[in-house]
Structure formats: structure tokens, C-alpha cells
């Protein structure tokens, strides 16, 4: 992620991670044999295996594996809290590289990729498409994200319902900073679409450890409110409450059948890509 060119960084990340591309499959006409099954009225006669008929005097359908292509929508939280930094690196930086790597990987798999940036003033949207020029435009839009303000208001959510009726994979990259469960409410709304949802909860190391060297005054990036903290005295209680919050969040996602993963900005992207492929392999469109 030290490479500033987003497309080059995504390519190097994915190419270095992948020795081969794992592709999801369904049963149907294809090249790679999967299994035989008994003929049923209405089956395509072209799928009959006549050699099996000659050996057994029974009709069998030869099934093979084919690749499935889906639409993947990457949702990026662009509220001001994503400007939180650990050193010179912000949460939105990590979200950019994660989104770019996932998009590059999905494009390699032949999937259509869309981008939705949830801003204070509304939602920037790029409908899902599958071609290299579209991927280049997606990289460009990721580079242009400038987090500001609060989380997107529900009045703007209509953009998220503009996809097809086909099941999609929605990947939401967010720090889950919310004042009134607004992000959880959004996920409940998205759940009504019956898509697969993956949430990558981005946190920073100094945020996890309450280790902001040299600081005693903290400012809320979205409201501007400040608070004085003695980090040494507050650390133990803070970590306990944070652990409780993260566990409660995990349970909320589990209850909603949402794949959820906390990912720290000092963590390599490899594990996030593995988690993506794991979820991708479960889809059968």
C-alpha cells in the first residue's frame, strides 16, 4: 500500500496473493465434468450421455461445471470519521486500497463491479459493469473520495435500490461510526433486497489500543465536539467497553446473516481477500 498508484497497487496486491483464481460454479452445460444424474422429462436431450446409455440401457444427463458471473457492489463509507489517521495513514486510505483490490480481483473473475460512495450530501453511484475501462473509472473515483460530514441520510438510499433483481454481492467498507444506529438501519434496509452482504469494519491500531502519543484532547471528526482524556487512566476501561461493543456488533451482524469482519489498518490486505473469496465461493446464482 506504499504504492500511490491505486490500480498498480491493486494489481500487485492481487497478483501476489493469487496463484490461481478460485471461481464459483454451478451445475449446467460446460467443459469440466461434474456428475451424472437420471434423465427427467423436460431435460435438454443434447445433454444425454449416449455412451452411458449404451453401457447401462438407461438415460443419464451429463452435468458439468460452469463459471457464474455476478454483480458486486462495493459500498464505501465517506463520512468524516473515515479521515481518522494512525500516523500518515487514514481509514479512507485503507478503504480505497481494499476496494480497489476487491474490484480488481472481481474483474479477473469476470464479475461486474459497481461502486457506491456514501457521502454526507448523497450517494455517488457507478452501476455494475464488467470491462477494463469501467474498472479504470472505478479506480479513479476511489482516488477522488474526500470524506466529510455525517453518514448519508436515508432520503438518499434510493440509489442503492437501482440494481437488477438478480442476487448481488454487496461489500460495505465502513468504520461503523454512528450516532443513532443509522448504519445498522441501512443494513436492515439492504437485507430486504435478499443480497449477500459483507461488512468490513475498518479500525486503526491507535483506536484499538487508545494509544495517541502526545494527545489529551480528542475531537469528534463528524460533530466537532472535544473531550479531555487521561489515556493511561482510561485505557483499561476503554478497552473493556470497546471489546463489548465489537462483540455486540458481531452478534448483530450474525443475527442478520451478514458476513462481518473487523480489519485493522495495520493488517495486510491478504486476509480480507481470503475472506472475500470464501464468501464468493458460497454464492450460487
TrEMBL record:
<dbReference type="InterPro" id="IPR036465">
    <property type="entry name" value="vWFA_dom_sf"/>
</dbReference>
<feature type="domain" description="DUF58">
    <location>
        <begin position="35"/>
        <end position="242"/>
    </location>
</feature>
<protein>
    <submittedName>
        <fullName>DUF58 domain-containing protein</fullName>
    </submittedName>
</protein>
<dbReference type="Pfam" id="PF01882">
    <property type="entry name" value="DUF58"/>
</dbReference>
<dbReference type="InterPro" id="IPR002881">
    <property type="entry name" value="DUF58"/>
</dbReference>
